[in-house]
């Protein structure tokens, strides 16, 4: 086998090595995608039944441990995947460094805000009377 | 403005291909699903806030604009899901020949249409009672 060097001569000369997180974004996007394939189909099927339903039916459904747990995992996976995806969109289209950083931070904060709101809502419905 | 060189691709004379259009649609549907995720949180949040909030949310979702959002959400979801599976398949190094890429592309479009129709038939027949 011929020697394959992926690192640049400059990188080797500086000798700091990689930050060891080059593939982290790519990898987590795939992991959340794989998790979301079954997880997104489940609520779509369940929620279709609840679509026109009264609030009571939704509350009763989330009172079961499995739907409540899966709904929380789903919310976390959705917003993790969304943050990773929107990050790439922002990095691709916003070229001003200041605006890019601002957009990235605002986007992340919004994702955190919505996921916390969603998880709290599920907990309240699952544990409430 | 000061640079008169033509853009590439030159959009007025650009011949679209299935491959590039589907790639753009994957990103567009992803952005749409970020809005859809907010819709999901709003639904759970409205339910946790109480019966009045839930009724108001249901009223909004039952309006023409709400139904349009919901329809767009299902199309975007099924497209992003099917095309996402296509991407995961590519990640294993398979299906990358041009013939396979086109075959899986048309399959994704057909599956998106079929799943959307099935979901809406199920939703409209289940939601009426």
Q: List the uncertain runs of chain A.
A: none
Relative helix content of chain A: over 70%
H and E order of chain A: HHHHH
The largest β sheet of chain A comes out as: none
What's the β-strand tally of chain B? 0
Low-confidence stretches of chain B: none
CATH topology of chain B: 3 helical TM bundles of succinate and fumarate reductases
Q: State the CATH superfamily name of chain B.
A: Fumarate reductase/succinate dehydrogenase, transmembrane subunit
Written as H for each helix and E for each strand, in order along the chain, the element string of chain B is HHHH
Largest sheet of chain B: none
Give a count of the beta strands of chain A, DSSP E runs of length 2 or more.
Answer: 0
Provide a concise account of the structure shown.
The complex is a heterodimer of chains A (129) and B (129). With 129 residues, chain A is an all-alpha fold.
Question: How would you characterize the overall build of this protein?
Answer:
The complex is a heterodimer of chains A (129) and B (129). Chain A has five helices and no strands. Chain A is elongated, with a radius of gyration of 21 Å. With 129 residues, chain A is mainly alpha-helical. Chain A has one domain (24-127): 3 helical TM bundles of succinate and fumarate reductases (Up-down Bundle). The N and C termini of chain A lie far apart (67 Å). Chain B has a single domain (17-126), classed as Fumarate reductase/succinate dehydrogenase, transmembrane subunit (3 helical TM bundles of succinate and fumarate reductases). Chain B contains four helices and no strands.
Main traits of this protein?
heterodimer; A: 129 residues; mainly alpha; 3 helical TM bundles of succinate and fumarate reductases; 5 helices; B: 129 residues
Annotate the secondary structure layout:
The complex is a heterodimer of chains A (129) and B (129).
Chain A: H1 9-14, H2 24-50, H3 55-62, H4 65-93, H5 97-127
Chain B: H1 18-49, H2 51-62, H3 64-91, H4 98-126
Helix pairs in contact in B: 1-2, 1-3, 3-4
